Amino acid sequence: NAGVMQNPRHLVRRRGQEARLRCSPMKGHSHVYWYRQLPEEGLKFMVYLQKENIIDESGMPKERFSAEFPKEGPSILRIQQVVRGDSAAYFCASSPPRDRGSSYNEQFFGPGTRLTVL
Amino acid sequence: RKEVEQDPGPFNVPEGATVAFNCTYSNSASQSFFWYRQDCRKEPKLLMSVYSSGNEDGRFTAQLNRASQYISLLIRDSKLSDSATYLCVLASGSYQLTFGKGTKLSVIP
Question: Which one, A33, A110, B9, B54, has the greatest CB density within 10 A?
Answer without folding.
Answer: A33
